[in-house]
Amino acid sequence: QVQLVESGGGLVQAGGSLRLSCAASGRTFSSYAMGWFRQAPGKEREFVAAISWSGDNRYYADSVKGRFTISRDNAKNTVYLEMNSLKPEDTAVYYCAADLKLHTIVAGTTVDYWGKGTLVTVSS
Predict the structure, then answer these.
(1) 114: helix, coil or strand?
(2) Partner residues linked to 64 by β-bridges
(3) Deepest of 2, 37, 61, 106, by most Cβ within 10 A of its Cβ?
């Protein structure tokens, strides 16, 4: 079992930055690929970024490439999402996800574990 708790959301002006964190419980964190998804009001949840268990492989949605960076610290059981040059369209609830298979997260299919989300609001 893996439990995920997101933090770091909030209100920021367009052009600003935020760093989201996702703290994971369990001794097997380093075995899991991790990812971030988001869901804007009235829209379906969408893939944002993913990182392999080792951190060697990273994937991003086209909409965030060059602005967002995913990273992880296996010693702290934490994955991060650094978000820069934020836009109003980045406003959403951001969810952390964990799965043993990286491609499952990238594909956005049946992910093993989800956090409860943290709200990011970008004002124009």
Answers:
(1) strand
(2) none
(3) 37
